[in-house]
Amino acid sequence: MANNYKSETVLPWSRLLLLAAILLLVAQNHTWAFVNLHDASYHANPEKLLAPQTALHVAGIIDGEGNGHLTIPVAFSLALNRHWELGAGVRSQWIDVENHLPHAQFGLRYSAAGSILEADLWLGLDESENGLALSYGIAQSMSSRFALYYQAKIGFMPQFVYNDALLGFELSATPAFRVGRSLQIVWGFDLGSQSNDFEKFLAIDMEPGLWIPLGSDGRLALSVALGLAGNFKEDVRFRLAWMKPF
After folding, report:
1. What is the pLDDT of residues 180-199, one digit of tens each?
2. Integer Cα distance of 183 and 214 in angstroms
3. Which pTM was predicted?
4. Which of 29, 36, 46, 207 is deepest in the core (most CB within 10 A)?
């Protein structure tokens, strides 16, 4: 049975306050939007950093932009040992009934001491774009009821950047509050942009949600992300993700 990583290091509250201040300051002058890198992982619930495990990952993402985009990623992860995990799957996005953007996805994750390193390769099928994403994450347990998950991601190639930029990036922090024995209430904050036209593509997300255990170490993740303003504004995005270990 997989266990969540926990660190005995107590995170100073000053870091949380500093992060909040930066997000609020940037939001005063820039638009809010979503970043392609946010869903780069083959994991159905990538914010929750887990030890390697063999599992099925399925998600449904409804993006409120325009008439609504539907994305369905399906992947399988294989635990090679206590540190290494392989992942592979397919991801299908429907802009409308006739506009389908499929990808094949392959990933490799290394986990140790409450942190993860992950690489995800997206291979565009049909007319879809290719992409490569690298991620680093840290899980810190501040008490039996409160944990914080940090992630930093960089992305390359057209799937993750616009206008031939060298790279895109995303920084995220996800506080998680445990209610009862297993239910967790989370509120994610994400900030991202790219090397070219930094201000134009600067993006900030807020994504509250629930992480719900489903017996035999399976879990369900529900979240709603809201965009507030700007040229890349999305009205709302819903994500439902399910993971079932074997």
Report:
1. 878 999 998 888 888 888 87
2. 10
3. 0.81
4. 46
